[in-house]
Amino acid sequence: MHDFSGLAAQSKFDGATGAWDNLGTGGWMLCGALTVLAGAGYLVARHEQVEVPDAAPGVSSDAALAAGSKLGPALLVVIIASALFFPPTATQFWQTVLVTEIGIYVLLAIGLNVVVGWAGLLDLGFIAFYAIGSYTTAYLTGRLPVKPPSFLELTPLAAIPFAIVICLVAGVLLGAPTLRLRGDYLAIVTLGFGEIIRVVANNSTPVTNGSRGAFNIPPPEIHIGPLDIKWGDNVLGYWYLLLVFVVIVVLLFNRLEHSRLGRAWAAIREDEVAAQATGINTVRVKLLAFAIGASTSGVAGVYFASQIGSFTPENFILNNSILVVAYVVFGGMGSLPGAMAGAAVLTWLPEFLRDQVPAEDRQMWIGAVILLMMIFRPAGLIPARRRRAELGGLDKKDSSETTAVPAGEGM
C-alpha cells in the first residue's frame, strides 16, 4: 500500500505529495481489514497455547473454549484498526473535530479519571493545569512577552517534560493546603483555583500577553538522526501524534491502577476514615493523585497549544472543567476505557446534532441523552468492575437455563 501510493505521488497524481496521500477510502478500509485479520490470527494462535479445562459431560471442548473466551481482546483489535485507518476516510470537518476536540478531551478525561474516578476527589478546577501546560509551551517556544533564555528555547515536543514537571508542582501546590478538605468543600476550593489561574492569565499582560493570549506557536517537529518529521497543515498527522500520547499514557496508568498506589486510591475513595485506620497516609496519596492527574493535563496543554497555534485565557473557562467531569462520569468513573469513551461520545454528539436539530434545541437533546444514561446505566458507558459490583451486586442473576455439573460433583 505504501509503495504503490508513493509511486503515484512521484508522478504528482491527483496532487499527492507523498505516500498515503491518495490511497482512497477503499485502500484505507483494506488496511483496516487486514489489520483485523492479523489481530484475529494472533488471538487464535495465542489461545491455542492455553490449556482448555476438561469440559462438563455433554459439553464439547470447543463450546467450553468459546465460553471461556472474552470479548475484550477482540474488541481492542477492532478499536486499534479503526483508530489507525478510519480517520483518513472521514471528511475534513470530522478529521478536524477528531483532532482538535475529541482527542484533546480524551487526554483530559484520562487525567481527571485519576482524581475523580480512582481517588474519589471532586476536582472542578482541572482545566487550570491544562492552561498551565499551554502557557508553558508558549513560553518555552518564545511566544510570550517574557522570553526564555536562549538555551531554553525549545520545540513543542521538547517542552513536554517541562510542562509535566510544572503541572506536577502546580498540583502539589494546590493539593498541599486543600486536601484535608473533603466533598463539596474540596470542589469549591478547586473551582476557585481554576478561576484564579484564568484571571491571572487574563490580567498579567506583561507576562502572559493578557486577553490576547499567545499566538504563532510553532508546530511540533522531530529531528533526530535520519528521523526528520515536521507537522503542519495535515490534520491527520496530529491525530497519529495524539494516538502515541494516548497509548503511552494509558499503558502507564493501567499499570498504576493495579499498583499499591492504585489500591490506596481505591481504599480512600470507598472510605477515607477506614483507609487511614489501616495505615494509609491519605494526604500523601491524595496529593499524588492530584499531581499525576495534573501531569496528563500538562501533556494535553502542550498538544493543544502546538496544534492550534494560538489561544487566549477564554479557552480555559470553568465550563470546560465541568465538561471534563461530565465526560468521566458519563463514561464510567474509575474506568480508563470508560473515561475515553465518555469524552469521545459527548464531544462527538454536539457535532453530529449540528445538522440534525435546530441550534436552540441541541443542548436539550444532549441533556436528554445524559439523563437517560444516568437513569438506565448509572455506572456509566463502560463501568469499572468495582463500580458495577457496587451498583449491581456480586451475585449472578437467576437464570432458567440448566447448568452442566461435572460428574465428580454429582450426588
List the defining traits of the structure above.
411 residues; transmembrane helix; Branched-chain amino acid ABC transporter permease; cell membrane; LivM-like; membrane; mainly alpha
Brief summary:
The protein is mainly alpha-helical and 411 residues long.
Explained architecture:
The protein is mainly α and 411 residues long. It has a domain at 97-311. Helix content is 64%, strand content 2%. The chain is built from 17 helices and 2 strands. A two-stranded antiparallel sheet has the order 1-2. Helix 14 (318-331) packs across helix 15 (336-353). The relative contact order is 0.13. Residues 50-69 have low confidence and may be disordered. This is Branched-chain amino acid ABC transporter permease. Its main location: membrane. GO terms for molecular function: branched-chain amino acid transmembrane transporter activity.
Topology at a glance:
Blueprint: H1 2-10, H2 24-48, H3 61-68, H4 71-85, H5 92-118, H6 127-140, H7 160-178, H8 183-203, H9 205-208, E1 221-224, E2 227-230, H10 235-257, H11 260-270, H12 272-277, H13 282-308, H14 318-331, H15 336-353, H16 362-376, H17 385-392
Antiparallel strand pairs: 1-2
